[in-house]
Structures are given as C-alpha cells and as structure tokens.
Amino acid sequence: TKFEYSNLLISADKINIDDEINVSIDVKNIGDYDGDEVVQLYINDIYSSVTTPKKTLKGFKRVFIKKGETKSVEFVLTSEELAIWNRDMKHVVEPGEFEVMVGGNSIDVQKIKFEVLN
Fold this sequence. Notes:
By secondary structure, the chain is mostly beta strands. It has one helix at 79-82, and strands at 3-10, 14-16, 21-29, 35-45, 56-65, 70-77, 84-85, 91-92, 96-103, 109-117.
C-alpha cells in the first residue's frame, strides 16, 4: 500500500533550552490495502559547535492505517533528543536553529524549522 504525509506541525517556532516541542503529522493510506507504516522523525542541528549529521533519527512509530484512513502521529522532542556532545565533552543543548524532518524513510520527508533560545 502507499502512504501520503501532510500537515507537519510543531507546537512552537521558538523554545528555551529546557523546553520540549511537540511534532505532529497526518499520514493517509492512499493505497488499496490496509497496512502498517513506520513514521520516522529526524533532526538536524543546523549550526552546532561540533560537526553533526545532517539527519539523525530521533523517533519512530509504527502505525496501522486502514485503506483511505488518515491518522495523526505525534512525537515529543525533549532536551535529551536535542543535546549534543560539545568540544568539552559536555552533553548540552546549544541555542540555534533546528530542522525537523518526518516521513516514511530518510529521503522523502516533510521539513519544518524551529529555534532554541539561550
């Protein structure tokens, strides 16, 4: 079966370092059969003090969706998911811009950005 992603939303455009952010997306089964989809959430810390991957998997959920049905899938990103190991080997959340990507694989994703404030 096939799935279509739409309405990627975040709970805030700007958050503080210790805050969390809610991410939601609608997934519709546009195929001919009922099926499972693994919805994947990736982030990119756009400007960090150390080199980080362009896409880091931070969450996934398997959802069963009947033919023609749409389900909303939600994730919560906490400071733990946003933290990196800096040059001093401290696990910290750095202020700056983050990109959230959600999709059924790492290539076909919807993107949205938010900012972490100091």
